[in-house]
Amino acid sequence: MNRYFYYSILMCMLVNTIIYVPNILFAHRHNSALTGMLLSVVIGSCLAVIFSKAMMNKQGQGLPELLTQHLPLWIKGVVLIYLGFMWFAAGSIVLIVYSIILKRFIIEDINLEVLIILLMSVVVWSASKPTKTILYLLEIVMVINVPLVSIILFKALSSKYMNWYGIWNIASDNVMKLPNLDVVAAATYLFTGYINQAIFNREFDGRFCPKHLWAIPFLGLTILSTTFFIPIGFHGTEGVGHFVYPWVSTADSLRMEFGFVERVVYLFLLLYLSLTLIFVTVTWHVGYRLIESISQKQFPIRSWSLKPIVVFGSFMLITIFLAYFLNEKQHLILGTYWLRLRFWSELGLVLYVYYLSRKGKTT
Question: Structural domain of residue 85, as residue ranges?
């Protein structure tokens, strides 16, 4: 069962390339990107290890059960609603961004809101399934996609068009500069997959004991480096800042002469369609389970069976509202603010959960 813990982390690491993490890193490429990335590897890895150790002390229990033991009901309800919508926001941002990418590069004639509704229908259907089903689906997607994504990365690194001098120029120019908060908040998002253990831990009754935690900083540094340096190698130190979706443009620069699809961008978008759907499925499932854990007395609905409709319906309506009324620049600004809020919220949640786990262990 421990492999699902790493699947969740790896899923979040891979999906970062299509959201606004690369944009934020490239915006600070001349001042603090590298030091911020190195600091984020340390912070993200430490938070992942601390949270996993805390959940190991609470085998078979999720975050709602842990909060029930230590918080009043009304505070627990407020915290779970806030965290549930934070998880929802994570999936919603990815869903909107990928829908825009699909419309721009693949199916230009479709209405954006219609495309989002179609994708959300698939997500809601799968996210409402039992947690065990979500974990099995996550494993299938990761086993299929990780080797193919690795081939794309290898193809990029071995390309004759890779400008290693530009990469060295950026790396050497950033060594002695202080990290920026936006860079740290964005780069630590790669490690956030471990936080799904807040619900997944319920399924790991007595069997959650992850080994080889040293692999988390290694994987994080590797993927973060490729996310940042490969587009710079293809588009140059200045040109990379002119792309709204730098990784899609980078994939479109690659060719597979002997592949069944010559243009890598189509394979890239197909892979990230499945990664996007499983990422949004997992985040919306976790968000739903957190809100579902509020007791019936705290939830202002007479019929408790309507709760999935209310929760997922709210998720869908807010997502459509954001897609319809905000443009791409506003989405980037909103995503940057959300990454900051997520960073501090995640930091506080991890430290508090670790405190509660130690408190329960000593008493």
Answer: 2-362
pTM of the model: 0.91
Cα torsion 208, 211, 215, 217: sign: positive
CATH number of the domain where residue 328 is located: 1.20.1730.10
- Would you write out the chain's pLDDT as a tens digit for each of its 363 residues? 678 888 999 999 999 887 788 888 888 888 878 888 999 999 999 999 999 888 887 777 888 888 888 888 888 888 999 999 999 999 999 999 999 988 888 888 888 889 999 999 999 999 988 989 999 999 999 999 999 888 888 888 888 888 888 888 887 776 667 788 889 999 999 999 899 988 888 887 667 777 788 888 999 999 999 989 999 888 888 888 888 888 888 888 888 776 566 678 888 888 889 999 999 999 999 999 988 887 544 544 444 444 678 888 888 999 999 888 888 888 888 888 999 999 999 999 999 988 888 775 544
Number of H helices, E strands in the chain: 15, 0
* CA–CA dist 163, 235 (Å, integer): 8
Q: Report the alpha-carbon distance of residue 252 to residue 154 in Å, rounded.
A: 15
Cβ 268 vs Cβ 101: under 8 Å = no
Written as one letter, the residue type at 342 is R
- Tally of domains within the chain: 1
User: What residue has token string 């219609």?
Assistant: 114
Contacting residues for 16 by C-beta, under 8 A, at least 6 apart: 22, 189, 190, 223, 227
- Rg of the chain on CA atoms, in Å: 20
